[in-house]
Each structure stands twice: as C-alpha cells, then as structure tokens.
C-alpha cells in the first residue's frame, strides 16, 4: 500500500488486487499481520490483512454498504497500520485521517472478534485521531489474539509462509523471491514429513540476526527443488 500524504490519509487498496496473488485465509491473515505489527513491521502488517480483505470487496460490497464483520475488521486493521506508520513518520494529517477511518470500521464489531482484542486497538486509534503525537510519548500497543501478544514464535506454518516473504521484502527485497518460493515449497511439503524448508522459514522469522544465512540455505533448497523439476520435465520431452 503506497503512502498517501494528503490531509485525510486516504489510501486506495483496489490497485493492489492483481499484485497480491491468491487470497489469504482470514484467520491466517489476522495472525500473520498481528505478528508483523507486534514485531515492529508496522506498515508491512497490512500486506496479509489486505490479501484477505480484497476478495471480500471483490463484488463491490464496500460501495454497496454491505459490510460483514470480517471486512470491517480487516479494513480497520489496515487503516490502523497506516495510521501508526504515518504517526511514526510525523505525518500527523495522514495519521489522523487513517485513525478516524479505523475507528469507523472497528467500532461496530464486538470486543473479542475472532479472538482478537479490539478495545485496545480502537482506543489506540481514537488517541491517534485526537493527538497523533501520542505515538512519541506512549508508543504503539500490542495486538492480542486469544489473550496472547502474537509474535513470530506463535505462528503456525500457514501464517509463517505468509509473514516470511513480507519480512524478506522489508529487510531486503533481494530475498523476497527466494523466501516466497520457499514458502510455496513448504506448503507443498506439508504433511509429507519433509520439514526442512518449513523449519528454515520458522527460523528466518524468529532469528533476525541469522536471516542472511538462513536465506542462503533457503535459496539452496529452492534451487535443488527447481533442478529436480527440470530433470523430471526432461524425462517427458
């Protein structure tokens, strides 16, 4: 989601439909995005939330005013990430506009929706809307799901395969392709007992100081898998 520095802090999500690829399950997106937010990848947290949100709006439900709670929740969290990012960058007008949008989307939802504690998120956005400089005095809150502050160590394989490429893109764009390919392989191998790539992805998220070395090992695994596929293809040519 590109930054938008206008006075209202608006943002256009529709332009990203094609770029995001396959939709993400809502529960998976909530955990992946919450972990990214809590681990300090605040703006990047919108990526999994947006990937799950866009299909809900695919038929113009937003324009028609036909909001489901999943759509409201995801849209509100996306706005929360944008508001927090703008406030951190001292873009006060953008922070206020996005925070007001977040409050509008999140207010009608019950306090514990899909296990996510919404009251602290709503209160944070209300504070940002009233006084965006609060980010410099109090810092951002953590997002809790099932009464737990979600971090990378709490993610299952599905959420890890969503969060890891986002971290790779944020830390160094050169690793995103490798980590995305590794995530695809981990999904393919799920349930087969071949867990090396999955374990490397968990480590990639949970051990930031070792990410370059882990990315290199993932690149090696991806290359091996691609070589095997080429060899198989050659057999049938």
Automatic annotation (TrEMBL):
User: Domain of life of the organism in this record?
Assistant: Archaea
Under the heading Gene3D superfamilies, the entry gives:
TTHA0068-like (1.10.3450.10)
Which keywords appear in this protein's UniProt record, sorted alphabetically? Hydrolase
Keyword Hydrolase, does the record have it? yes
**UniProt-listed InterPro entries:** DUF309, TTHA0068_sf
Annotated signal sequence range: none
> What GO terms are given for molecular function?
hydrolase activity
- Protein name per its UniProtKB record: Putative metal-dependent hydrolase
Q: Provide the species name.
A: Halorubrum alkaliphilum
